[in-house]
């Protein structure tokens, strides 16, 4: 039988998890974390900036039987938008019409979000509850990325319960093709400028 949550991290550190931490020797360190800094429960300016820079996310839900489901969501940087210090969301575009996540949260609103920054080997884990807001044209417009060609069916909102950062160990470094293209274009422009300057220096008198 689980005890009443005391710390924000109790959303993940259940009695069963703490028992394994005790058995494997990490409980003391996590107990110190709980009593000192602990996990955040509100969206800080730093987290808001991290969210705004993402162009993809992983979203996990489960049905009433406990069967988990993870899906990837993506869009241009800024497709994830902070609503207030407790919640953020995204425009839910028309897709393959399976509606697994939408169905899951009718039975179990608990959700988990994984945000990855592969280029800088950073990741953030967010626990919370997911809800679907339909029929709100003003909110749809607010949450839709500018100029993005897709039809908004509803807005999905994550109410944050707790969040934490992960260590960078084992995160592969991956770079978006747009970042690579910009770097190459910048390099080529600089080379062209240097070559032009060199030609001027070599020109007679």
Give structural notes:
A seven-stranded antiparallel β-sheet has the order 2-1-5-6-7-4-3. A hairpin with a 2-residue loop joins strand 3 and strand 4. It starts with 14 loop residues before the first helix and ends with a helix. It has six helices and seven strands. It has three domains: 39 residues, no CATH class; 131 residues, Electron Transport, Fmn-binding Protein, Chain A (Pnp Oxidase, Chain A), CATH 2.30.110.10; 31 residues. It is 34% helix and 29% strand. The chain is α+β, with helices and mostly antiparallel strands.
What name does CATH use for the topology of the largest domain?
Pnp Oxidase, Chain A
Strand tally is 7
The SSE string, one letter per element, is HHHEEEEHEEHEH
Radius of gyration: 22 Å
Biggest sheet features: 7 strands, antiparallel
Please mark out the parts with pLDDT under 50 across 5 or more consecutive residues, or reply none. none
CATH class of the largest domain: Mainly Beta
Quick one: overall form? globular
Overall structural domain count: 3
Structural class given helices, strands, pairing? alpha+beta
Helical content stands at: 25-40%
CATH superfamily of the largest domain: Electron Transport, Fmn-binding Protein, Chain A
Main-sheet strand order equals 2-1-5-6-7-4-3
**Mean pLDDT reading:** 92
Second-tier CATH architecture of the largest domain: Roll
Taking the alpha carbons of the first and last residues, their distance comes to 90 Å
Note the total helix count. Answer: 6
**Looking at the chains present, what oligomeric state does this protein adopt?**
single chain
Percent of residues in beta strands:
25-35%
């Amino acid at each position: 039988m689980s005890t009443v949550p005391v710390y924000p991290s109790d959303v993940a550190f259940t009695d069963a998890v703490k028992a394994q931490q005790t058995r494997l020797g990490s409980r003391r360190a996590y107990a110190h974390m709980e009593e000192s800094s602990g996990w955040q429960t509100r969206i800080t300016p730093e987290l808001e900036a991290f969210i705004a820079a993402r162009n993809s996310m992983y979203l996990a839900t489960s049905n009433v039987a406990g069967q988990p489901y993870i899906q990837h969501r993506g869009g241009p940087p800024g497709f994830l938008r902070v609503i207030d210090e407790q919640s953020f969301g995204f425009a839910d575009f028309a897709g393959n019409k399976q509606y697994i996540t939408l169905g899951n949260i009718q039975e179990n609103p608990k959700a988990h979000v994984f945000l990855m920054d592969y280029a800088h080997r950073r990741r953030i884990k967010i626990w919370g509850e997911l809800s679907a807001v339909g029929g709100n044209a003003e909110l749809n417009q607010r949450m839709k990325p500018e100029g993005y060609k897709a039809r908004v069916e509803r807005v999905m909102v994550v109410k944050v319960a707790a969040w934490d950062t992960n260590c960078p160990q084992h995160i592969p470094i991956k770079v978006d093709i747009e970042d690579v293209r910009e770097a190459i274009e910048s390099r080529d422009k600089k080379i062209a400028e240097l070559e032009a300057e060199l030609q001027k220096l070599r020109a007679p008198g």
